[in-house]
Specification:
alpha/beta, 8 helices, binds 2-acetamido-2-deoxy-beta-D-glucopyranose, seven-stranded mixed beta sheet
Length: 269
């Protein structure tokens, strides 16, 4: 899984190396319940991604690579200068209806396969989050609008995501835990963090993650960490990279090597 379009760089899906033998999920960044000034819209989501990532581009990359799936990530950290936050809707059921209908039309326009939940800031009382987001995922899945749903917690947002996962886990396919937000520099601490997070979420759904030119473990130590995690009895069923935008400058080194790791893992079994 790879976030794309998060930094405003003009990037094309076709620039990213894609292996045909495993599923490849692009996560479009972002669909936001806000107008262009960042004001909440009662659950009506609009797409805010770079102009190169069009519905036509989605159609084209999925035609070339039938193993590609494309998800819309909800919210993200900010829109322009405005930092975004979960807010408690005045009427939760109206929010759920608006969100499911606006996301359905986004999914249909772009030809998407699913959604990723990436709210990154929460008010002290955030009880509405698990119910509203969980209901939207369940509605969209039950109606066959989407086939994939993922969540992207990090250390300080883990509690609302545990609530969501506890109540609606049957509808959630992968946990894109942002390991790079923890201060992890070595394979050994990566393993420890991985073990910790698999105890909070479903063990087989937690994906290791890597931030290109970013925080956390860097360079080939990430692949040492993957081997160590695997050798300690964990099932690595995928990986998440943030982000394609940052990888343009290094020739997509981590995307290639991560896919090779996952493919070799498949052949070992
Ligand atoms: C959101 O709903 C509230 C309550 O119904 C309403 O007052 C407000 O105008 C709505 N906001 C938008 C942007 O539609
Ligand atoms: C794992 O969890 C333990 C127990 O809560 C904690 O002491 C430790 O710091 C955590 N390690 C990492 C790398 O997250
Ligand atoms: C590994 O995870 C995959 C995907 O969730 C699952 O299908 C498989 O059964 C798991 N294998 C083991 C050994 O847990
Ligand atoms: C902002 C927005 O789209 N609000 C809509 C949410 O849903 C209610 C009920 O369907 C509509 O009346 C609002 O216009
Ligand atoms: C997805 C997958 O095939 N994971 C496997 C990776 O390798 C380890 C150890 O060989 C297996 O236990 C996993 O099932």
């Amino acid at each position: 899984m790879e976030y794309i379009g998060a930094s405003g760089v003009d990037i094309e899906f076709a620039s990213v190396p894609i292996s045909q033998s495993i599923d490849f999920h692009f996560i479009l960044s972002f669909a936001i319940d806000a107008d262009s000034s960042g004001n909440p819209q009662n659950g009506t989501f609009s797409p805010y991604c770079v102009s190169t990532l069009t519905p036509k581009a989605v159609k084209s990359i999925k035609y070339i690579y039938p193993n590609v799936k494309v998800l819309a990530s909800l919210s993200g950290w900010s829109l322009g200068q405005k930092v975004l936050s979960w807010y408690n809707p005045e009427d939760q059921d109206v929010w759920i209806l608006n969100a499911s209908s606006s996301l359905k039309s986004l999914v249909e326009t772009y030809g998407l396969d699913g959604i990723d939940i990436d709210y990154e800031r929460f008010p002290k009382h955030h009880e509405s989050f698990a119910y509203c987001i969980g209901e939207v995922i369940a509605l969209l899945k039950n109606k066959g609008v989407i086939s994939v749903a993922t969540i992207a917690p990090f250390y300080s947002t883990v509690i609302p995501y545990i609530e969501l996962h506890t109540r609606f886990g049957d509808y959630i396919d992968y946990v894109n835990y942002q390991f790079y937000t923890d201060i992890i520099k070595t394979p050994e601490t990566y393993l420890e963090a991985f073990r910790n997070r698999t105890q909070q979420f479903d063990k087989n759904k937690v994906l290791p993650s890597y931030e290109v030119s970013g925080r956390g473990i860097q360079g080939d130590a990430f692949f040492d960490a993957l081997k160590l995690v695997e050798n300690n009895g964990f099932n690595i069923s995928g990986a998440m990279i943030f982000s394609a935008d940052a990888s343009i400058s290094n020739g997509f080194y981590y995307e290639k090597k991560t896919q090779n790791f996952l493919i070799n893992n498949l052949t070992r079994v």
